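Methods — Computational structure assignment.
A single polypeptide chain was analysed. Its primary sequence is given first, followed by the predicted tertiary structure written as structure tokens.
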Amino acid sequence: MIGIVDYNMGNLASVINAFESLGAQISLESNPENLKNYDKLILPGVGAFGDAMEHLQRNDMDKAVIEFAKSGKLLLGICLGMQLLFESSEEFGFTEGLGLIPGKVVAFDTAKFDHPLKVPHMGWNEMFQVESEKRKVKSELFNGLPNDFYLYFVHSFHAVCDDEYAIGKTYYGYEYVSAVQNGNIYGIQPHPEKSHENGLKILKNFVKL
């Protein structure tokens, strides 16, 4: 059984529909005490980092997610959910995150753009798989996908972390990390549930892990 953390940050219908289309057993969960009953966990999210952390902390859902991750079970953060996995964010001031992946979340640095680009980064863009010196292999989250493939993005902030945690990168004005893995903890910046066949393939891989 896969649980989706329900903490009132975004419409979860498309995430549920995507998993159900794959035949996965999926359930929304708003009670932190019940997270331990799931085999795998999805942490979605749309909106501001600070608001999301505040919602998670209201009933200690943040602590429950951390404990779930520490148990060794698989956790996947999607979009804002991926950003929450990091230690902190600079969005609207400094906010501490879940600290499950070393690194931080920053705004797109428009001074680095080699030509004018709009923020937020919105629409279809390419993700290319990367392998770290530590892993020496590409992530199983992308099994069956080509080295470069398109997904749907909507975000104004992005993660900064050591390459050992990067499993996917994207170019938007400059190269940035768009997918991460730290052991049993995965994160992906784009929306796989809105990315047609490629996105469904990622979710299917997660189900099969």
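Note: The chain has one domain: 2-208.
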